């Protein structure tokens, strides 16, 4: 029995420590890092936003969309360069009571708990930073099971299916989506 315990201890010692995740504003100096996810169809395939095919398109997207965004942050790992993004967009027609959360992560960093950690950080601060915000929503393609798992790990509640709700980047046929929510009262 002792060798089995020793083997178990050795396996635990070999597992990498979870990455230290931080959030900060994304700027034009981050263009090359931004390209790691914004130009990758594996990452962007469920988002409406077009791929950034080149550096000039990435600069334009950061300049025209990110810099003026009400709440957009770079996701960084272990104090390094950005490996992803998370954004919160208040619904204009609701007086800021509800907002949508979106995120993307460079493919090389998938499966490490980074996005779930980043979303938990967002939930921990966005309700204080956006006065009046009561409800954070996430809508994801029914086929995007990875995103659904991330939201559940971050404490979001599955509210059901929205039929024929979202269209793809190319304006394709509307697809079903899953809607999740996190209320300000859900914070621990």
From TrEMBL:
Chain ranges of the N-acetyltransferase domain: 21-178
SUPFAM superfamilies from the UniProt entry: Acyl-CoA N-acyltransferases (Nat)
Pfam assignment, any one: Acetyltransf_3
Family matches, as PROSITE patterns: GNAT (PS51186)
Name of the molecule in the record: N-acetyltransferase domain-containing protein
Species of the source: Eragrostis curvula (weeping love grass)
Signal peptide (UniProt feature, chain positions): none
A GO MF term: acyltransferase activity, transferring groups other than amino-acyl groups
Region (Disordered): 1-20
Domain of life: Eukaryota
